[in-house]
Amino acid sequence: MDKEILVSLDVNIPNLKIDILLDYKTHPYLSGNKWRKLKYALKYLEEKRIYKIQSMSGNNSNYLMALAKLVSNTNFEAEVFTASYTQDTYTLNYAKKAGVKIRHIDRTDYRLLRENPLESKLIDENAYWIGEGGSSSFAIKGCEEILKFVDLKNYNEIHTCAGTGTTAIGIGNSLTANQHLFVHHSFQETHYSDKFNQLCQKKPSEITFIKNIGKFGKVNDELVVFINRFWQNHKIPLEPIYSAKMMRTILSRNYATPTSILMVHNGGLQGIAAYNYSTQKEKIDIITN
Ligand SMILES: Cc1ncc(COP(=O)(O)O)c(C=O)c1O
After folding, report:
1. Is the CB of 267 under 6 A from ligand 1?
2. pTM for this structure?
3. How many C-beta atoms lie closer than 10 Å to residue 274's C-beta?
4. Ligand 1 atom closest to residue 164's alpha carbon, by position in its atom list
5. What percent of the chain has pLDDT over 90?
6. Which residues, in sequence order, are CB contacts of 53 under 8 Å at separation 6+?
7. Would the CB of 57 count as within 6 Å of ligand 1?
8. Class of the CATH-defined domain 33-134
9. What residue spans in the chain does CATH classification 3.40.50.1100 cover?
């Protein structure tokens, strides 16, 4: 596998060996798992000559940024529903400029789109619907390929992050016996364990769900300091919503026995600019490179 994409981290923690899969380097503009989730949907749409996508997203979502890049670089057009109160965000502004049609809707309509899009009047039958975070029937299949070129026997723990859980389920499907999957998440554990039971066809031998410190999207100064220090020491960028929280957890554990970890870095680095924009430069910027 390409040395630029799979890198070893020099952490000097007894018993710990850790490699990071920089999956965001696999596509020129769709970052990491966003490419994995969209890959087969886009292939299908191109075959069917459907160029309109409808979707839903949070106001700083990495997936929204992926749609914006898609619209900028291809013939696809996208209409995206949001329900967030704050409309002046880095990602929404970027998406609007890129030509994504943003429609602000109320929370009830948003919930219906999330739970039962087919019942929503907002759905355009000439468009292809993609759920929150890029989830579609194709997304898990794409995420099953994330570890395709990794020699899995080198690792006994695989770590990834979860929002919708799609990426982790795809990775779970691709694991062989003896690998322990760690899923770092910010919502209720039952939400993920139920989804895993429903959608993971080939369960890994063991799954541990680790709740991130702090609510989804919440970033404190300590995390900012961690990200900056990590960048200075390793020259690997971490974004504050997923990868930084996961890495901080991994590095703060005690390893009583030799442990070989593969951490999947799913990209979403626009989250750094989004955070910096939201702090209006009052706080320390995240990455100083
Ligand atoms: C960087 C990053 N990590 C993890 C996730 C969570 O992915 P999923 O929604 O598939 O659980 C996302 C969202 O796509 C993301 O942008």
Report:
1. yes
2. 0.95
3. 27
4. 9
5. 81
6. 45, 67, 70, 76, 77, 78, 79, 127, 128, 129, 130
7. no
8. alpha beta
9. 6-29+140-278, 33-134
pLDDT in tens, 157-176: 999 999 999 999 999 999 97
Pick the CATH number of 6-29+140-278 from 2.160.10.10, 3.40.50.1100, 3.20.20.100, 2.60.120.10: 3.40.50.1100
Choose which residue among 25, 91, 167 to substitute to test ligand 1 binding: the one with the highest number of ligand atoms within 8 A of its C-beta. 167
Please provide the average confidence, as pLDDT, over all residues in the chain. 93
- CA 37 to ligand 1: nearest atom: 10
The residue to mutate among 23, 27, 33, 199, having the most atoms of ligand 1 within 8 angstroms of its beta carbon, is 33
Q: Give distance in angstroms: CA of 150 to centre of ligand 1.
A: 20
